[in-house]
Write a sequence for this structure.
């Protein structure tokens, strides 16, 4: 259903969700809309996935921890 809502093949959506491939930048607003997420947070998730593919686990853990903190701060300011 996710792939259908975005107008892409299921294999493409699987690659994005599994972190094996990054969507093109023009797809990120569509993805955030379908998932109901903040665009900046979604962009950060994709950056973290790309780092995970290309960098050490230590770098990835650091970036993911930072993104989690930003998301918590964002949630507190929006509540």
């Amino acid at each position: 259903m996710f792939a259908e809502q975005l107008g892409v093949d299921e294999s493409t959506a699987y690659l994005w969700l599994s972190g094996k491939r990054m969507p093109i930048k023009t797809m990120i607003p569509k993805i955030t809309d379908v998932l109901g997420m903040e665009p900046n947070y979604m962009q950060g998730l994709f950056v973290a996935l790309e780092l995970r593919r290309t960098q050490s686990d230590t770098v990835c853990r650091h970036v993911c921890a930072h993104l989690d903190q930003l998301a918590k701060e964002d949630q507190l300011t929006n509540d």
